[in-house]
Structure formats: structure tokens, C-alpha cells
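Aim 2, interim progress. The first record below pairs a target sequence with its C-alpha cells.
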Amino acid sequence: MMPEAIITWILYLNENGIKTEGIFRRSPASSKLREAKEEFDCEIGSMDCEELGGVHVIAVLLKMFFKELQIAIFDKNVYEVLKGQQKAKIAGVDILVWPASQYSPA
């Protein structure tokens, strides 16, 4: 089961950050990020994405969440396939082209 905050963050980024340049590369102020992470870790605060610091804070929190998982979401086989995929643009957003013939989940 995924924490409710993660779903909220994904929906927020989809609605507010999809065209934000450098969304997963730019780092917000470390104090703002630390404060937001503490609220998430302790399950306190409003979890209002704008109050937490907006698109860049939420993007980094989402990256941190997935990075800190004890079990990887994608195994090494999937990772290798993803690394080698071609990119395409849809509505100005880079996406990976994933031919079904290259990988079938077990």
C-alpha cells in the first residue's frame, strides 16, 4: 500500500509540475526540504503541497521516498531495459518508449 501523501504528491506534480523545467533536477532550499520531510516522516502538518514548498520540494520528496525504499520497484533487468529506451515527446514532455516485446514482467 502506498502512503496517501505519495498519491497526493504524484497528483499535484501531474497537475502543477508537468511542464516545470528541471522538476527533478533543481533542489529547493535545504531548510524547506528538511521541514517538509520531517512533516512527512512524522505524519504531521497539513501536507498541503504549496505550503510544503511547491513543485520542486514535492518532486525531491517523491524522489527521496522511492530512493529510501528497502526493496527496489524495478529489478536490474527492468533497469537495463529502461536505460536503453528511446525517448519520445508527448505534449512537450519526454517519455520512454517501451516496446512490449522487450520485457514481460514475471
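The second target in this work package is listed in the same format:
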Amino acid sequence: MMFIYLGITLYILIMVVLNLFEEKRFFNQLNAALVIIPLILRLLMIK
């Protein structure tokens, strides 16, 4: 069950990182960066 959770988290993280590099506006890039931080912590299993 944990592998499914980590897989979904990894997929969302990849999508957000791709969106970060495709986005032109700075504030949208900043928003994506703020979303990336908790996703990375979840993948490393740090709450």
C-alpha cells in the first residue's frame, strides 16, 4: 500500500516540476516551488 502512495506522490511531483519549468510567470513558478517542497518531504518520508 505504501508503494502506491509513494508512486502517486512521485507522479504528482513530476507533474508539478514540469509545470514549474513550463510556466512563464514568476508567481506561478513560486507557487509550484512551494508545492514541491512538501512533496519531496513526503517522498523521503519526513513529515
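The two ends are 18 Å apart (CA to CA). This observation will shape the mutagenesis plan for the next reporting period.
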